[in-house]
Structure formats: structure tokens, C-alpha cells
Specification:
Blueprint: H1 2-17, H2 29-44, E1 51-52, H3 54-70, H4 83-89, E2 100-110, H5 111-114, H6 117-126, H7 128-134, E3 141-151, E4 154-167
Parallel strand pairs: 1-3
Antiparallel strand pairs: 2-4, 3-4
Helix pairs in contact: 2-6
Length: about 170
């Protein structure tokens, strides 16, 4: 019995000190909340749940950070790059695929209420175009990025970017 306890203690210790793999995705609490809301809604519509993609996560976070840093709001990057070109640049490519499709939702809010994950998700669901991205049947992967910055003379604005896609 004593050996089992030692083995379990050692396993717990190893799980705590071993670094996550290079492909691991660490999401913030608001990003996880958006993913939960999306997958709950997709389940209610009998759709596959979306799984995180490291490349889509990097693309979405980068775009949210850029919008907050440079004080703009657009699917087009500050340098004029389209959202699909940005997604490709971050590694979600169509090379070797017979099917490649991507979509993007962006939103911003300020203050504790309008900048919350729940408020952003509800706003997307009230917009037919944004809702269509969330409920696109073909999508299987997602990246959700959140950042805080300035926009339109207001500091502390929260930006969300959702990049979704499928590659086959």
C-alpha cells in the first residue's frame, strides 16, 4: 500500500513540474468562456464542437493585440493584410488540402459588462453574419484571442478575435 502512495505522489509531482508540450494552448478565462459558449450553441444546433488550433489561436491573439496597440477595429490588419492571409501566415495553410475554409469574427467592448466574454458572444449571436461564422457546419478548429488596448480615444477596450476553419 505504501508503494502505491509513493507512486501516486511521484506521478502528481511529475505532472506538476513537466512543462507543457510546444503545441499546448493556454487560454485565458475569457477565451475559454467564449469557447464554452460557442460549443454549447453548436451542440444545440447538432453541430460538431470546435477544437482549438495553435495556429488559429496565434493568428487571433495577434490580431486582437494589434487592434488594441494600434487603436483600430477591422478584419484587415494594420498593414493591409487580409484576415485569410494572416491566418495562412500563422500556419493554418491550405497546402495539401482538398478543402480549406476560414472565417473570422471580431468584436470590442469597454467596461466590465460590454467587454465581457458573455457580452461579446451575445453580440455575435445577434448579428446574422457573425452568427453564421459560429454556426458554419464545416468548421472544426478555432482560435480565440483577447487583448486590451485603446480605441477611439478610450483606454481599456477589450478586443476579441475568433478565427475558425476547416482543413481536409
Amino acid at each position: 500500500m505504501k508503494r502505491v502512495a509513493v507512486a501516486i505522489s511521484l506521478m502528481v509531482f511529475l505532472l506538476c513540474v513537466v512543462a507543457p508540450s510546444a503545441g499546448a494552448i493556454t487560454m485565458t478565462k475569457p477565451e475559454r468562456r467564449v469557447l464554452t459558449l460557442i460549443n454549447r450553441t453548436r451542440a444545440n444546433h447538432k453541430l460538431h464542437r470546435l477544437r482549438m488550433s495553435a495556429s488559429l489561436e496565434r493568428a487571433s491573439r495577434s490580431h486582437s493585440r494589434e487592434m488594441g496597440k494600434d487603436g483600430y477595429f477591422s478584419h484587415t490588419s494594420y498593414n493591409g493584410e487580409s484576415f485569410s492571409a494572416r491566418i495562412i501566415r500563422f500556419g493554418y495553410t491550405y497546402k495539401g488540402c482538398t478543402c480549406w475554409k476560414v472565417g473570422e469574427d471580431i468584436a470590442y467592448g469597454s467596461g466590465g459588462t460590454s467587454g465581457s466574454a458573455t457580452a461579446i458572444f451575445k453580440a455575435w449571436m445577434k448579428s446574422p453574419a457573425h452568427k453564421a461564422i459560429i454556426l458554419t457546419k464545416a468548421f472544426r478548429r478555432v482560435g480565440i484571442g483577447r487583448a486590451t488596448g485603446s480605441f477611439d480615444g478610450i483606454d481599456g477596450v477589450v478586443f476579441f478575435t475568433l478565427d475558425a476553419g476547416v482543413r481536409r
